[in-house]
Write a structure and sequence with these properties.
single chain; alpha/beta; TIM Barrel; 2 domains; eight-stranded mixed β-sheet; six-stranded parallel β-sheet; 17 strands; binds zinc ion
Length: 466
């Protein structure tokens, strides 16, 4: 049976959207046609989308859904439920915030068995290398196995707060990059200078400087700039594909842009919280906005937007990481309060409202930074990230004029808080389709429905580094 989605508009060049019909069969888009090009026929079901804007399903390349191991914070059911309600048809889950961490094929399969029955949307999995795993003599074989299994990318930390996934020094990073270059899989790096951050942290703590702005001062712009510069050098040395996750400072964007100008295979992502907030907001909102890395200055924020507009930054991802609410955000010390915010449900409305509606980015660029570019980075660009013939029928039905107010209590992830609490966004997800199946819908009366967990499927990386 084919389904013909009619009465809709899809993004065209710039800010244009054109009327179209989308024909779906067996979970794939088999044609995109002009409106009225087919008469109603018996072998086609028709779904009228009421003139709505239809966008490619969002690919959130950076989420921490904590399952198994830290499921007091999030689990794969609640995390993917929030994703579905936010128009995210594919999440890419980090390897470090589940136990055992995804540092071997056996650990990957253990995790897949647990999370697959819970998934509301499609998902990819990051693999990782950490100081812990490099202590094992066969870490290179384990890494090769992960790549062969189709992990999305390999995560490493230059500064980690996790004992179960410790950070790597420069020589270790060089060893890992030498392997990933050979394997044709990219590396995603948490880039902060650990020596500098440890030094500043020790000094501040020994001087009883215990506020949130002290925490922010322990992870200054220079920490990211130094680390990204180190990665640029290692990228040049090894030729490995290097991606900087959650870029939060302006000067780091300059380094990445220059490296690309020199032909180095380097890229970066930023997150909505870095585009929306500064240290001033951290001071005002408190630990609810605490993240690692931490929000910086208004100058940094403006440079990040510029990077998103220009293409110097490849795409936007959320770094969704929800701590147990309220306990873990109110520990009595800014140093121990949980660093992380839930974000997967709000990224698309935020970027539409603050990006497209405010004329910072075009609709065309919105599609690029939320779908097409991450699809290329994760090697699924022949299957996801675009509305085109032969692609998975992953799409968002978006009410672009609906204005609504963010209430954390209405979110769908497990621990509900948001630095966007009380903000009004224009544009809201009405439905999400994954491989042709409607997995989320909010009707005119605000009643919500979800397809059962287990509807989402594991997606493997298909192509080598682009
Ligand atoms: Zn992260």
């Amino acid at each position: 049976m084919r389904t013909r989605f009619v009465n809709l508009r899809i993004p065209a060049a710039g800010n244009d959207a054109r009327a179209a019909e989308i024909l779906v069969e067996d979970g794939r888009i088999v044609a995109i046609e002009p409106t009225g090009s087919a008469l109603a026929s018996d072998d086609e079901e028709r779904t009228d989308l009421g003139g709505a804007l239809v966008l490619p399903g969002v690919i959130d390349g950076h989420v921490h859904f904590d399952d198994p191991g830290f499921t007091h914070r999030e689990d794969f059911e609640t995390g993917t439920r929030a994703a579905a309600a936010g128009g995210v048809s594919c999440v890419v889950d980090m390897p470090c915030t589940s136990l055992p961490p995804v540092t071997s094929a056996a650990n990957l399969h253990n995790k897949l068995e647990i999370i697959s029955p819970k998934a509301h949307v499609d998902f990819m999995t990051w693999g990782g290398v950490c100081d812990n795993s490099m202590a094992e003599p066969d870490w290179r074989e384990q890494l090769a196995e992960l790549a062969a299994e189709g992990v999305a990318s390999i995560k490493v930390y230059m500064l980690s707060g996790m004992d179960t996934f410790r950070d790597l020094g420069r020589d270790q990073l060089r060893e890992v990059l030498t392997e990933t270059e050979r394997l044709g899989v990219p590396v995603g790096v948490h880039a902060e200078d650990r020596e500098l951050v440890h030094e500043l942290t020790d000094w501040l703590q020994s001087h009883e400087q215990n506020g949130l702005l002290d925490y922010a001062a322990s992870r200054p712009m220079e920490a990211e700039l130094n680390a990204v510069s180190t990665m640029r050098d290692l990228c040049r040395e090894t030729g490995a594909r290097v991606h900087i996750v959650h870029v939060g400072t302006g000067p780091a964007v300059d380094v990445i842009a220059e490296a690309r100008g020199d032909g180095l295979p380097m890229s970066g992502e930023t997150c909505p919280h870095f585009l929306a907030f500064t240290a001033e907001d951290l001071n005002e909102k408190g630990a609810v906005l605490k993240t690692a890395p931490v929000v910086k200055s208004a100058t940094d924020r403006d440079r990040l937007w510029q990077g998103v507009v220009s293409g110097e930054l490849d795409y936007v991802a959320t770094d969704h990481a929800a701590g147990q609410w309220p306990e873990e955000k109110h520990t009595g010390s800014a140093w121990t309060d949980y660093g992380g915010v839930p974000g997967v449900e709000l990224m698309l409305p935020y970027l539409y409202s603050e990006g497209v509606k405010k004329d910072r980015i075009t609709l065309e660029r919105l599609v690029e930074i939320t779908a097409s570019a991450p699809a290329r980075f994760f090697g699924i660009e022949r299957r996801k990230g675009r509305l085109a013939r032969g692609f998975d029928a992953d799409f968002v039905v978006f009410d672009k004029d609906e204005s609504w107010t963010v209430r954390a209590a209405d979110l769908h992830n497990m621990n509900r808080y948001s630095p966007h609490e009380g903000e009004t966004f224009t544009g809201r997800v009405r439905s999400l389709y994954v491989r042709g199946e409607r997995v989320f819908h909010r009707d005119r009366h605000g009643r919500e429905s979800f397809a059962p967990p287990g509807t989402g499927e594991w997606v493997k990386r298909e192509s080598e580094v682009a």
